[in-house]
Specification:
alpha/beta, D-Maltodextrin-Binding Protein, domain 2, 2 domains, 7-stranded mixed sheet, two-stranded parallel sheet, 46% helix, disordered N terminus, Choline ABC transporter substrate-binding protein
Length: 313
């Protein structure tokens, strides 16, 4: 199996022109970025970390809530961010744009979605739309399960409750982390109890739970069930100082099936994000060529060659 991977990687390497020597400053050796504790961002952060490390950089990943993470980027405490969900995080993006000094490197994912959903008992009760919820308040115990405090999606839910939209004025938002939310939904699923909760793709929850995404929430989550794109942001000064690292990030794009698999390795198989990334890269070496075209190691050696050697270990 290793021989097959090495043969594919060697072919990829042969097809990529020898890059110019890296001209990243010494200060670029450590790449600082953050994640809010969501598994999808942990997965993509893990891919970036493994590849940065193979290229001779040191990834420094902080776990910060969404608002704190944006402040860290704005204030220069981090260099880049792989998890700018739009439109859910539009107000944070507008704040960064108004402040200046931050630029978008690439849209790294399309086809994502993010809105309220119900489990099978909820769908069986006839809940298909936001407007259906209040008639079944008792079955749902009047609770909407959200993610960590401060998340924009939670703020949207609370705004609905405060405005008594869809008759939800006497409902309660239960804030917790992603894992705690899904654990509760799983317990309710086993007990046959309806749940309404934040759901999104990519995520292996879509395989583990019989999910029905609710229509009718366009005003709060956007059209197409909260259809979203995810973007990579970086400090303009960092991009100028670290063009090689920035080039790599401009080319680092993902897709929903890939992220579902990566997240499953983390959530279901118990792998750390970097372990999941190493395993996925070894299984999908053909993805390395486009990501690393024209990218070098920090010391100026061909980047794909360095990653090939790291994967083979």
């Amino acid at each position: 199996m290793r021989h097959v991977r090495m043969t594919i990687l060697a072919a990829l390497l042969a097809g990529v022109a020898a890059p110019a020597f890296a001209n990243d400053a010494a200060s670029c050796a450590t790449v600082r970025y953050s994640g809010p504790g969501w598994t999808d961002i942990a997965a993509t952060n893990g891919i970036a970390a493994v590849l940065f490390e193979a290229l001779g950089y040191t990834p420094d990943i902080a776990t910060l809530s969404v608002p704190v993470g944006y402040e860290a980027l704005k204030n220069g405490q981090t260099d880049m961010f792989l998890g700018n969900w739009l439109p859910a995080q539009q107000k944070f993006r507008e704040d960064l744009d108004a402040n200046g000094g931050i630029e978008e490197l690439v849209q790294n994912l399309s086809g994502a979605k993010f809105t309220l959903a119900v489990n099978k008992p909820g769908a069986d009760a006839g809940v298909m739309d936001f407007a259906d919820l209040d008639a079944h308040k008792d079955a749902f115990d009047g609770k909407i399960y959200g993610i960590e405090p401060g998340a924009p999606a939670n703020q949207s839910i609370q705004a609905m409750i405060d405005a008594d939209e869809f008759g939800l004025g006497d409902w309660t938002l239960v804030e917790s982390g992603e894992q705690a939310m899904l654990a509760q939904v799983g317990r309710n699923e086993t007990a046959g109890t309806p749940s309404v909760f934040l759901a999104w793709a990519p995520h292996p929850m879509n395989e583990a739970i019989d999910i029905t995404y609710l229509s009718g929430g366009d005003a709060y989550f956007g059209p197409d069930f909260g259809g979203a794109t995810i973007h990579t942001l970086a400090r303009s000064e960092w991009v100028e100082t670290c063009p090689n690292a920035a080039k790599f990030l401009r080319q680092l794009v993902f897709d929903v099936p890939m992220e579902n698999i990566l997240m499953g390795k983390i959530l279901n198989d118990g792998l750390a994000p970097t372990e999941a990334a190493v395993e996925w890269i070894a299984e999908n070496p053909e993805r390395l060529g486009p990501w690393l075209e024209g990218v070098t190691t920090l010391s100026g050696e061909p980047g794909l060659d360095a990653v090939m050697a790291a994967v083979a270990e």
